[in-house]
Amino acid sequence: MSVEASDTNYFDFYGLPIQFNPDQIAVKTKFYAFSKQFHPDFYANESEEKQQEVLDLSTLNNKAYQTLSNAKKRLKYVLELKGIVETDEGYQLPQSFLMEMMDVNEALMDLEFEADAEKLAQVKRDVDAIEKNLVNELNDLISRFDSDPTASDALLPSIKDNFYRQKYVDRIRERLPK
Description:
By secondary structure, the chain is mostly helical. It is built from 7 helices and no strands.
Protein backbone atom coordinates (compact mmCIF):
# COMPACT_ATOMS: atom_id res chain seq x y z
CA MET A 1 0.00 0.00 0.00
CA SER A 2 1.64 3.19 -1.18
CA VAL A 3 0.71 6.54 0.32
CA GLU A 4 0.52 9.51 -2.01
CA ALA A 5 1.06 12.83 -0.24
CA SER A 6 -1.16 14.64 -2.74
CA ASP A 7 -4.09 12.32 -1.94
CA THR A 8 -3.90 12.74 1.82
CA ASN A 9 -5.47 15.63 3.67
CA TYR A 10 -2.97 16.77 6.35
CA PHE A 11 -5.76 17.40 8.86
CA ASP A 12 -7.11 13.85 8.40
CA PHE A 13 -3.57 12.48 8.64
CA TYR A 14 -3.17 14.15 12.04
CA GLY A 15 -6.76 13.40 13.11
CA LEU A 16 -7.65 17.10 13.39
CA PRO A 17 -10.66 19.08 12.17
CA ILE A 18 -10.04 21.40 9.21
CA GLN A 19 -9.34 24.77 10.82
CA PHE A 20 -7.30 27.85 10.00
CA ASN A 21 -5.84 27.75 13.53
CA PRO A 22 -5.55 24.11 14.58
CA ASP A 23 -4.21 23.28 18.03
CA GLN A 24 -0.44 23.69 17.52
CA ILE A 25 0.38 21.45 20.49
CA ALA A 26 -1.65 18.65 18.86
CA VAL A 27 0.10 19.30 15.51
CA LYS A 28 3.53 19.10 17.14
CA THR A 29 2.58 16.04 19.21
CA LYS A 30 1.37 14.16 16.11
CA PHE A 31 4.46 15.22 14.16
CA TYR A 32 6.85 13.85 16.82
CA ALA A 33 4.82 10.67 17.31
CA PHE A 34 4.76 9.97 13.55
CA SER A 35 8.43 10.92 13.23
CA LYS A 36 9.24 8.09 15.62
CA GLN A 37 6.65 5.68 14.22
CA PHE A 38 7.70 6.18 10.59
CA HIS A 39 11.45 6.50 11.09
CA PRO A 40 13.09 4.61 8.21
CA ASP A 41 15.80 3.13 10.49
CA PHE A 42 13.16 1.00 12.25
CA TYR A 43 12.25 -0.64 8.94
CA ALA A 44 15.73 -1.41 7.60
CA ASN A 45 15.04 -5.18 7.63
CA GLU A 46 11.60 -4.91 6.02
CA SER A 47 10.74 -5.48 2.36
CA GLU A 48 11.56 -2.77 -0.16
CA GLU A 49 7.83 -2.14 -0.53
CA LYS A 50 7.39 -1.61 3.22
CA GLN A 51 10.47 0.65 3.35
CA GLN A 52 9.01 2.79 0.54
CA GLU A 53 5.64 2.99 2.31
CA VAL A 54 7.35 4.17 5.52
CA LEU A 55 9.45 6.66 3.58
CA ASP A 56 6.27 8.03 1.94
CA LEU A 57 4.59 8.33 5.36
CA SER A 58 7.66 10.05 6.78
CA THR A 59 7.66 12.52 3.87
CA LEU A 60 3.91 13.10 4.30
CA ASN A 61 4.46 13.76 8.01
CA ASN A 62 7.16 16.36 7.27
CA LYS A 63 5.01 18.12 4.65
CA ALA A 64 1.97 18.08 6.93
CA TYR A 65 3.94 19.60 9.78
CA GLN A 66 5.58 22.26 7.58
CA THR A 67 2.15 23.31 6.30
CA LEU A 68 0.08 23.09 9.48
CA SER A 69 2.67 24.84 11.66
CA ASN A 70 3.04 27.85 9.29
CA ALA A 71 0.13 30.34 9.31
CA LYS A 72 0.52 31.53 5.69
CA LYS A 73 1.01 28.04 4.25
CA ARG A 74 -1.89 26.75 6.33
CA LEU A 75 -4.19 29.56 5.15
CA LYS A 76 -3.49 28.75 1.49
CA TYR A 77 -3.77 25.00 2.17
CA VAL A 78 -7.21 25.27 3.82
CA LEU A 79 -8.48 27.50 1.02
CA GLU A 80 -7.20 24.95 -1.54
CA LEU A 81 -8.77 22.05 0.41
CA LYS A 82 -12.08 23.87 0.41
CA GLY A 83 -11.75 24.41 -3.37
CA ILE A 84 -11.78 28.19 -2.90
CA VAL A 85 -8.24 28.94 -4.15
CA GLU A 86 -6.57 27.31 -7.13
CA THR A 87 -2.89 27.39 -8.03
CA ASP A 88 -2.05 30.28 -10.39
CA GLU A 89 -5.63 31.53 -10.25
CA GLY A 90 -6.20 34.95 -11.80
CA TYR A 91 -8.08 36.55 -8.90
CA GLN A 92 -9.69 39.95 -9.42
CA LEU A 93 -8.93 42.18 -6.44
CA PRO A 94 -11.67 44.63 -5.39
CA GLN A 95 -11.50 48.01 -7.15
CA SER A 96 -11.57 49.85 -3.80
CA PHE A 97 -8.45 48.00 -2.65
CA LEU A 98 -6.64 48.66 -5.94
CA MET A 99 -7.44 52.37 -5.67
CA GLU A 100 -6.06 52.42 -2.13
CA MET A 101 -2.90 50.66 -3.34
CA MET A 102 -2.47 53.05 -6.29
CA ASP A 103 -1.16 55.77 -3.98
CA VAL A 104 1.36 53.35 -2.48
CA ASN A 105 2.47 52.18 -5.94
CA GLU A 106 2.88 55.76 -7.18
CA ALA A 107 4.97 56.62 -4.13
CA LEU A 108 7.13 53.54 -4.75
CA MET A 109 7.70 54.59 -8.37
CA ASP A 110 8.68 58.07 -7.22
CA LEU A 111 11.15 56.55 -4.75
CA GLU A 112 12.76 54.53 -7.56
CA PHE A 113 13.69 57.77 -9.31
CA GLU A 114 14.44 59.91 -6.28
CA ALA A 115 15.41 58.59 -2.85
CA ASP A 116 13.53 60.38 -0.10
CA ALA A 117 13.90 59.00 3.44
CA GLU A 118 10.84 60.83 4.74
CA LYS A 119 8.63 59.64 1.88
CA LEU A 120 9.95 56.08 2.26
CA ALA A 121 9.16 56.13 5.98
CA GLN A 122 5.61 57.31 5.20
CA VAL A 123 5.11 54.57 2.58
CA LYS A 124 6.35 51.96 5.08
CA ARG A 125 3.89 53.30 7.69
CA ASP A 126 1.06 53.16 5.12
CA VAL A 127 1.92 49.58 4.13
CA ASP A 128 2.18 48.58 7.82
CA ALA A 129 -1.26 50.07 8.50
CA ILE A 130 -2.84 48.31 5.49
CA GLU A 131 -1.19 45.04 6.51
CA LYS A 132 -2.34 45.41 10.13
CA ASN A 133 -5.94 45.99 9.02
CA LEU A 134 -5.79 42.92 6.76
CA VAL A 135 -4.35 40.77 9.57
CA ASN A 136 -7.03 41.95 12.02
CA GLU A 137 -9.76 41.29 9.45
CA LEU A 138 -8.34 37.83 8.70
CA ASN A 139 -8.00 36.94 12.39
CA ASP A 140 -11.66 37.86 12.93
CA LEU A 141 -12.79 35.82 9.89
CA ILE A 142 -10.79 32.70 10.74
CA SER A 143 -11.78 32.85 14.39
CA ARG A 144 -15.45 32.89 13.30
CA PHE A 145 -14.77 30.06 10.83
CA ASP A 146 -12.93 27.87 13.34
CA SER A 147 -15.63 28.29 16.00
CA ASP A 148 -18.25 26.77 13.67
CA PRO A 149 -16.68 25.26 10.50
CA THR A 150 -19.90 23.63 9.28
CA ALA A 151 -21.83 26.90 9.13
CA SER A 152 -18.87 29.00 8.08
CA ASP A 153 -18.40 28.14 4.40
CA ALA A 154 -20.11 31.48 3.74
CA LEU A 155 -16.99 33.16 5.18
CA LEU A 156 -14.64 31.47 2.68
CA PRO A 157 -15.04 34.06 -0.12
CA SER A 158 -14.11 36.85 2.33
CA ILE A 159 -11.13 34.84 3.60
CA LYS A 160 -10.05 34.23 -0.01
CA ASP A 161 -10.29 37.93 -0.79
CA ASN A 162 -8.20 38.77 2.28
CA PHE A 163 -5.64 36.10 1.27
CA TYR A 164 -5.16 37.71 -2.17
CA ARG A 165 -5.03 41.24 -0.76
CA GLN A 166 -2.32 40.09 1.68
CA LYS A 167 -0.37 38.50 -1.20
CA TYR A 168 -0.56 41.85 -3.01
CA VAL A 169 0.72 43.70 0.05
CA ASP A 170 3.53 41.13 0.42
CA ARG A 171 4.63 41.93 -3.16
CA ILE A 172 4.56 45.66 -2.36
CA ARG A 173 6.66 45.03 0.75
CA GLU A 174 9.24 43.18 -1.38
CA ARG A 175 9.52 46.28 -3.58
CA LEU A 176 10.17 48.63 -0.65
CA PRO A 177 13.76 49.90 -0.66
CA LYS A 178 15.70 48.55 2.31
